[in-house]
Design a protein that fits this description.
GO terms for molecular function: signaling receptor activity. With 967 residues, this protein is of the alpha/beta class. The chain has 20 helices and 45 strands. Helix 11 packs across helix 16.
Length: 967
């Protein structure tokens, strides 16, 4: 832009001769002389809930067009290698920055200095080798920092100096190697509560190297380090409550040297998964936390697990035990494994390949409330669970259970959640759940259940969630769920249901969500009686069924007429390929519907009254149909619509928005349609629009889109997703060009600049005219009258009407005595000529100039009685001008000059036309007639009789003495 301004200045200095070129240049380029406003549309990212999302966009540098108001910035999964000092300088409101999974190897000092509000910074999965001096300067409010899975080897002494508010630091999976690097970190972070330094190839842990660290860590993860010794000789972790000592994959045996039990006296959660040490050291370790331990994790252990379980269960405070992925070390589960675990309330035995559990294995666990046996190889519900009278949660997912018996859950009257998903159950019996009166959640999804056998007719009064999806159900019978009076969530999707008997949902008066997508439901299945009992239903999902209607005729019994509280309805269908329509009253009764999804149902039209029953509708998805045209009347009942999805419907225009009155619309997605022009009217018809997605349309690069292009680049409210990648398909010579690269300067000129130029020109013109009038006033007046005479002469010169008078007398009022006393009696009284005099013969009420012109052209001759007063008269000047025009334009001898006074040539000089006439024509002089007045009147009479042939005018009069020729 600066070069453009210099060029303008050069042109302006070129002189007045090039003024026109300068003005034209300014008119075409004025828009480029103004710094464009920062629009909300971004080149590679998008904004969602005030977060800039640039995920997986192949960026190699931080984009610079991010609005300064964003509070979140996600740059993960890109190719950025360097963070520069200017990358974030304008993002003063940023609170969360995610740089995960890039190639960052260099961060300039001060790169984060302006991020005074930043609270979370993620630098995971990059290539940082060193954390340099003052790297995190300015991050005084940062509370969470993650730099795991880099290659960090060196930590500068002041790297974390500015992070006075930091509470969580994850620097795992790097190459710190020595605990002194950790010491440098800790001594700068007085408020740190969570530290993860797992997998850093640390070989020793000596507390004396942390003696100067005055921190109160609560959570410490040092797992996956090949420690050979773990030595604590001072109370450096007085507030530690969570400790992960999990071992590495290397076959190192760690030596435990913590002889003072008070050093870890507050640890309540301990993870020693995969830890390898002598059994004696293991006992010592567990004794160290004997007074506070509540939760112990011993996954993937290499030791004699039964012995470790016995040791750990002697800790009186321990209540939670996790034993995952121990495989053969715990299978089968015998009766002596947990004989000392009488205080356990939670036991996790998932993923151990357990096939058998002895009937008395869990008998000692009288207080057990949560038991996880998922991802094992059990073929039936273990009888051992029947001894757990206080059990509230039982997880048996992902086993090989094929059937359920009536006694499988006997005595489990306290059970609240039961997970049987991902097994091989083919049927359930009516008696299976008879004792589960307190059951709230039942998971039976992903089995082979084909019939329910009245299993839910018996009361399960507290069941709220029932998951039956991904089974083989084909029909739902009347009263199938009548015992589930408290059920609120029913999942039946991905079955083979094609029959819904009337009343199949009887009793489910508290149901709020039912998922029926991906079944074989047809329009004939959907009757009014099916859903009439679901009076509190909020969400109904019927996607991927075969619900097709052939016309828009009204249904006699609309299927949803009783669902007045329904808020979400989805009926898309990919199973049927034939074209469909929707009855205009399909939605009758849905007065509170907020979300309606009819995506991909081969729909060809929508009745204009479709939404008259849904005045509260806020989200409408009708994408992937063949509607082609939408009328504004369709949307008139839904004035609260906020989100509209109309992608892939072969839409040729968005003009329907102009009159649709969707003033609340905030989100519009219209991808892959057939429109090519977005007019200003469309833009201004949706004033609340925040997000616009028009990907995949074929735009026209011409002035019809100029308003849209300008709006995209300048508006600060609406985000037009991926606008910088919109491509032109028309005209052919611009095909493939980016829409926003189209030059719109020739489409419009800045109105303000036009006003400026117009005003300037008007003022200059006024000044020039004022100056000219002041200096050349009389010359202008003369030119004006000359022009008027010319106009009237041109107007009348071709008139062929016969002459009314023989002569028109042009004279000044001061010469009237001579005219009335000498001329008039002689010519009209004695000789009988018809003369025209202005005071006598002009038509009253007619403009003077018209009277003059008509009289001259209505007379054969014009006699000009010239004197000094005549020359000073404006009207006399007009009369002689009209007569002279007639003389020269008609080429007729119509003018007779009579001089009453001697007039020197010098006085005739200002009267150019009269001077010219005197030089060319003969004239009569009254003073020179002297005593020979009879000769004067004879010559005048001869002139009046002469023919009007211009070629002979010089021979008509006897040459009289002329005045001297004007110089």
């Amino acid at each position: 832009m600066s070069s453009g301004r210099k060029e303008d200045q050069t042109i302006l200095m070129g002189g007045r001769k090039r003024l026109q070129r300068v003005i034209l240049f300014c008119l075409l380029n004025f828009s480029t002389l103004i710094v464009p406003g920062t629009g909300l549309t971004l080149r590679t990212c998008r904004i969602s809930y005030n977060v800039a999302l640039c995920v997986k966009t192949k960026l190699t540098a931080v984009p610079r067009d991010i609005p300064s108001t964003v509070t979140g910035f996600d740059l993960s999964l890109n190719r950025i290698s360097r963070i520069q000092i200017s990358d974030f300088k304008n993002l003063l409101a940023l609170e969360k920055l995610d740089l995960n999974f890039n190639n960052i190897s260099q961060i300039d000092n001060g790169a984060f200095a302006s991020l005074i509000c930043l609270k979370t910074l993620n630098l995971n999965n990059n290539r940082l080798v060193k954390l340099g001096e003052d790297l995190f300067n300015g991050l005084t409010n940062l509370t969470e920092l993650r730099v795991n899975r880099n290659k960090i080897q060196i930590v500068a002494s002041t790297a974390f100096q500015s992070l006075q508010s930091l509470k969580l630091l994850d620097i795992s999976s790097n190459k710190l190697r020595h605990i002194t690097n950790v010491h440098l970190i800790l001594q700068q972070l007085p408020h740190l509560r969570t530290l993860s330094i797992r997998n850093n190839n640390l070989t020793t842990f000596d507390s004396w190297e942390l003696t100067n660290s005055s921190i109160e860590l609560s959570y410490l993860d040092v797992s996956l380090n090949p420690f050979t010794v773990f030595r604590i000789t001072a109370d450096v972790f007085p507030s530690l409550i969570w400790l992960n000592l999990g071992g590495s994959s290397r076959k190192y045996h760690m030596k435990w040297e913590v002889h003072n039990k008070t050093f870890l006296s507050r640890v309540s959660t301990l993870d020693i998964s995969g830890l390898q040490m002598d059994i004696g050291d293991m006992k010592t370790l567990l004794q160290t936390v004997n007074s506070s331990l509540e939760s112990l994790r011993m996954n993937e252990m290499k030791h004699n697990l039964k012995e470790l379980i016995s040791i750990s269960c002697t800790i009186p405070t321990m209540s939670k035990l996790q034993l995952r992925r121990n495989y053969k070390r715990i299978s089968p589960v015998s009766s002596d494994v947990f004989k000392l675990c009488i205080n356990l309330t939670e036991l996790d035995l998932s993923n151990n390949h357990i096939k058998n559990i002895q009937d008395n294995a869990f008998r000692p666990l009288k207080y057990l409330r949560i038991l996880s046996l998922g991802q094992n190889m059990l073929s039936s519900v273990p009888e051992a669970t029947r001894n757990l009278a206080k059990l509230a949660e039982l997880d048996l997912n992902n086993n090989k259970i094929s059937s359920l018996g009536c006694d499988d859950f006997t005595n489990l009257t306290m059970l609240r959640e039961l997970s049987l998903n991902q097994n091989s159950i083919s049927a359930v019996k009516e008696c299976v759940f008879k004792d589960l009166f307190r059951l709230q959640v039942l998971k039976l999804q992903s089995n082979h259940i084909s019939t329910l056998n009245n299993a839910f007719k018996n009361p399960l009064p507290n069941l709220r969630q029932l998951l039956l999806h991904t089974n083989k159900l084909t029909a739902l019978k009347r009263g199938e769920f009548q015992g589930l009076e408290s059920l609120s969530n029913l999942s039946l999707h991905h079955n083979q249901i094609k029959e819904l008997e009337g009343g199949c949902f009887t009793g489910l008066t508290n149901l709020t969500t039912i998922l029926l997508q991906n079944n074989h439901i047809t329009k004939d299945t959907l009757t009014e009686s099916v859903f009439k009992d679901l009076i509190n239903l909020r969400r109904l999902d019927l996607r991927d069924n075969c619900i097709k209607y052939e016309n828009t005729l009204a249904l006699r019994e609309p299927p949803f007429s009783h669902l007045s509280r329904l808020e979400m309805l989805a009926i898309p269908s990919q199973h049927c390929k034939r074209k469909s329509e929707l009855p205009y009253n399909l939605l009758q009764g849905l007065t509170n519907l907020l979300f309606f999804n009819i995506r991909d149902i081969q729909l060809i039209s929508l009745d204009s009254d479709m939404f008259t029953f849904t005045p509260q509708l806020q989200t409408l998805d009708m994408s992937s149909n063949d509607i082609r045209n939408l009328s504004s009347e369709l949307f008139s009942p839904v004035r609260n619509l906020k989100s509209l999805y109309i992608s892939r419907i072969s839409l040729g225009s968005l003009d329907f928005l102009v009159d649709a009155n969707l003033t609340q619309l905030e989100f519009l997605q219209a991808r892959k349609n057939q429109f090519s022009v977005i007019s200003k009217d469309i833009i201004y018809s949706t004033p609340a629009l925040l997000y616009l997605d028009l990907q995949g349309n074929s735009f026209t690069c011409d002035c019809d889109n100029a308003g849209f292009i300008q709006w995209v680049q300048s508006n600060n409210k609406t985000q037009v997703f991926d606008a910088y990648n919109f491509v032109c398909n028309y005209p052919s010579d611009l095909k493939g060009m980016k829409l926003l690269d189209f030059d719109i300067r020739f489409c419009s000129v800045d109105v303000e600049f036009i006003c400026f130029v117009s005003t300037t020109c008007t003022i200059l013109l006024f000044m020039v005219l004022s100056y000219t009038y002041h200096i050349l006033r009389w010359q202008l007046v003369y030119a004006y009258y000359l022009f008027l005479a010319f106009l009237f002469d041109t107007k009348n010169k071709n008139k062929q009407a016969p002459s009314q008078y023989d002569a028109f007398i042009s004279y000044n009022v001061h010469d009237e005595p001579w005219v009335m006393g000498e001329l008039l009696p002689k010519l009209e009284g004695e000789q009988g000529w018809r003369l025209c005099l202005h005071h006598r013969d002009f038509e009253p009420g007619k403009p003077i100039i018209d009277n003059v012109t008509d009289s001259i052209y209505g007379s054969r001759k014009t006699i000009c009685v010239i004197s000094h007063k005549y020359l000073e008269s404006e009207w006399c000047s007009r009369e002689i001008q009209v007569a002279s025009f007639r003389l020269f334009d008609e080429r007729k001898d119509v003018l007779i000059l009579v001089f009453l006074e001697e007039i020197p040539a010098s006085l005739l000089s200002p009267y150019y036309r009269l001077r010219k006439l005197v030089k060319r024509k003969t004239y009569l002089s009254w003073p020179r007639a002297g005593e020979h007045t009879e000769l004067f009147w004879q010559k005048l009479c001869q002139a009046l009789r002469s023919r009007e042939d211009f070629g002979e005018d010089r021979f008509l009069l006897t040459v009289m003495d002329r005045p001297h020729e004007p110089v």
